[in-house]
Recover the amino acids of this structure.
């Protein structure tokens, strides 16, 4: 991938994270292009990463083997319409990180049989710890799959799905998931403070406990239920708390919350990708 030329349309938060990860992974900075309407943003990216930048999306397309759409969902259709004649000629791999816009919509807007990989990263990409799901259409070669995967691995772990319809479930779980975990941590912190812990102590204990539990889960071969059982001694303190959560039907609350997020993801895809 080191000499493979990659262009990012949109030089915002996600593109910046991907750039940082790619360069740390050994991608040569002179093989990377970014286009964005904001010249100051581009200057900062050039200073930080020594990459190529331009305000003209078409000038970028002339240079690259892989094109990565990193604009907001509302901006994508115009970008695709602006570039599609050029793309049809050069036929690069198209990777989209744009939330909520389906491969079939991008393909329809492009109006040719483009190789497209749709990805769904999440916010921890900003600290190179994303969980990213990828789905490829049938025009994508195995070499292009590898290219898309190594691009997204620059900001965390990757996993492929074969059925794009599952992207709404992915959105409900990992896309929105960081916010659910922040909510749980927020509640732990508040409950600890109510028991008398100073705010800073409750905050540190909450964050380190979440980090430590996550690290244990990542490093263990046991499932999550078993890990929970290990720290829940019969008659102990943890069991008392777990009983309260279960009496409050916590699984049903999570089921309903994810179903609501899933429904909204389907609605947004209809709105954003329509027409
Ligand atoms: N942030 C996340 O955690 C996350 C997670 C999953 C997916 N995503 C997806 O990633 C995409 C990018 O998110 P982000 O947080 O990086 O957004 P962002 O910081 O707003 O970056 C988007 C960039 O695209 C630029 N842009 C707008 N119109 C353009 C055009 N026609 N040509 C070239 N560049 C253009 C914007 O410039 P202006 O600001 O001047 O408009 C902005 O610099 C979104 O579609 C989002 O759904 C983000």
């Amino acid at each position: 991938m080191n000499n493979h030329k990659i262009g990012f349309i949109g030089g915002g938060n996600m593109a910046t994270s991907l750039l940082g990860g790619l360069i740390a992974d050994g991608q040569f900075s002179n093989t990377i292009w970014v286009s964005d309407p904001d010249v100051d943003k581009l200057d900062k990216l050039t200073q930080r990463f020594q990459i190529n930048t331009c305000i003209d999306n078409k000038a970028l397309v002339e240079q690259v083997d892989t094109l990565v759409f990193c604009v907001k969902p509302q901006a994508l259709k115009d970008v695709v319409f602006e570039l599609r004649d050029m793309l049809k000629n050069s036929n690069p791999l198209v990777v989209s990180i744009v939330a909520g816009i389906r491969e079939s919509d991008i393909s329809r807007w492009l109006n040719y049989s483009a190789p497209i990989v749709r990805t769904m990263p999440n916010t921890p990409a900003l600290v190179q710890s994303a969980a990213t799901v990828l789905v490829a259409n049938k025009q994508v070669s195995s070499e292009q799959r590898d290219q898309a995967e190594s691009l997204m691995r620059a900001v965390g772990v990757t996993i492929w799905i074969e059925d794009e319809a599952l992207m709404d479930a992915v959105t409900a779980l990992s896309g929105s998931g960081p916010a659910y975990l922040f909510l749980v941590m927020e509640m732990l912190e508040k409950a600890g403070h109510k028991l008398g812990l100073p705010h800073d102590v409750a905050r540190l204990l909450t964050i380190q406990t979440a980090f430590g539990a996550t690290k244990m889960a990542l490093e263990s071969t046991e499932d999550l239920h078993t890990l929970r059982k290990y720290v829940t001694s019969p008659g102990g303190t943890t069991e008392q708390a777990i009983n309260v959560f279960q009496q409050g039907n916590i699984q049903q609350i999570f089921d309903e919350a994810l179903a609501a997020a899933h429904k909204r993801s389907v609605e947004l895809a209809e709105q954003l990708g329509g027409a």
User: Anything to note?
Assistant: Residues 9-15, 35-38, 41, 57, 70-73, 75, 79, 97-99, 121-123, 125 surround NAP (CB under 6 Å). The radius of gyration is 22 Å. The domain at 6-170 is CATH 3.40.50.720 (Rossmann fold). The chain has a mean pLDDT of 95.
